[in-house]
Amino acid sequence: MPGGTEPRPVVGALIRDAQDRVFVQRRSPDRRLFPGCWDVVGGAVEYGEDALGALRREIAEETGWQLRRVLAEVSRQEWTAGGVRHIETDFVVEVDGDLTSPRLEAGKHTDFAWVGPGGLALLDENTRRTGSTFIKDLVSAAHRWLATTAPERNGRAG
Fold first, then answer.
1. Which tops the pLDDT comparison, 37 or 156?
2. pLDDT band at 157 (very low <50, low <70, confident <90, very high)
3. Whole-angstrom Cα distance, residue 40 to residue 92?
4. What is the C-alpha separation between 76 and 120, in angstroms, rounded?
5. What three-state secondary structure class fits 111?
6. What is the pLDDT of residue 46?
7. Backbone angles phi, psi at 42, to 5 degrees
8. Secondary structure letter of residue 39 according to DSSP
9. Cβ-based neighbours of 24, under 8 Å, separated by 6 or more
10. pLDDT greater than 60 at residue 156
């Protein structure tokens, strides 16, 4: 368990669909941290849990989907919110389930969207609310990775 000076480990799932769009969900307006902002699926790694276990748990809790596979780690950043330091590791992942109908976590998320490279402007709303481009930067990192690996993932040489 992290001590007072160690950052709290957090994972994020940049869930991709068949069109290489990335799933985002809107945080409820009454959330303590980042109310009303777009976010990726994820959360804190619990005591005794590894990153993969946390990804699996958070995806199931927040969407009802099941982690199929981790494709890549695309970001590792430290940030502070509410006086707590976090070290967040974000992964591009694929999931199993009905991607048209996530089971959003009641009371925590109110809406969802699939964001393609041309739809990143949706995430500018977060910048207006918080001054941060964090989520837009994560989704952009996922799109960059997906664009450079598309031939390999589709079974074709690049």
1. 37
2. very low
3. 11
4. 20
5. strand
6. 95
7. 160, -175
8. E
9. 38, 39, 40, 112, 113, 114, 115, 122, 123, 135, 139
10. no
b/e map of 36-58 (b: 16 or more CB within 10 Å)? bbbbbbbbbbeeeeeeeebbbbb
Rounded Cα gap, residues 51 and 78, in angstroms: 16
Say which DSSP state 61 is in.
H
29-69, pLDDT tens digit by residue?
Answer: 999 888 999 999 999 999 999 999 999 999 999 999 999 99
CB 35 within 8 A of CB 27: yes
DSSP the chain: ---SSSPEEEEEEEEB-TT--EEEEEEPTT-SSSTT-EE-EEEEPPTT--HHHHHHHHHHHHHS-EEEEEEEEEEEEEEEETTEEEEEEEEEEEEES-TTS--PPTTTEEEEEEE-GGGGGGGHHHHHHHS--HHHHHHHHHHHHHHHHHHHHTT---
